[in-house]
Design a protein that fits this description.
about 250 residues, eight-stranded parallel beta barrel, about 40% helix, binds phosphoenolpyruvate
Amino acid sequence: MSRRPLIAGNWKMFKTRGEARKTCRRLLNLVGDVQDVDIAVFPAFTALEAVREEVQGTVVGLGAQSVHWEDQGAYTSEISLPMVLDCGCQYVIIGHSETRENLGETDDRVNLKLTKALSSPIIPIVCVGETFVQRETGRVSQVVLGQLEKALRGLTAEQLSRIIIAYEPIWAIGTGRTATPETAQEVHAMIREWLRDRFSAELPGQVRIIYGGSVKPSNVAELMAEDDLDGALVGGASLDPESFAKLVRFAG
Ligand code: PEP
């Protein structure tokens, strides 16, 4: 793996400020010395400030779970790029399947959000992935590359060089069913090939493609051993600091 791996913990709608602080303190005890892996946590918006206070100046980075494409306005329940930057976020997740499904995030909105994020130094993590039925009916490449085509529309290879793509098969998220390392590798390699054909010869070597879907200490090592897997986006197993620390060390 030539690109620097990222292990990202998506805390979804879990953890109050106090719980998030406690998790960070324990996590930092366990991974504070890690040098060769990027680490980031994505707390609920309400805990961003508290987590920033805990992780600032440490090896643990901070990210937001979504961002709006406008700087401000009448968008009840949303959060803007200036707001997440103000909270110290270095990363933002865009197009998570739960946001697509529960909050009506369309490919067009993913594109607006990504374009907005790339106007700032924040590192966007763009999520794509197929449903079980789409996989069973042989539509993985059509769905995944279709999502990417729309998400990345209008952006240049230069702009895209710092994005991270998260391949998250929906059937593997929160289900305990993980893609086999070979299955994940196949899709990651396909995405890299597409980046080459669609944008530039350099881009596939620059963009990190991370895997998400029931990654846990018992399967992280075999997944990370694949050439085109540059890290993991983790939900459930990132909530517990002991388990998250094992993921960071690719250890079961
Ligand atoms: C996720 O929410 O991005 C995810 C991969 O969740 P889990 O690890 O729980 O499957």
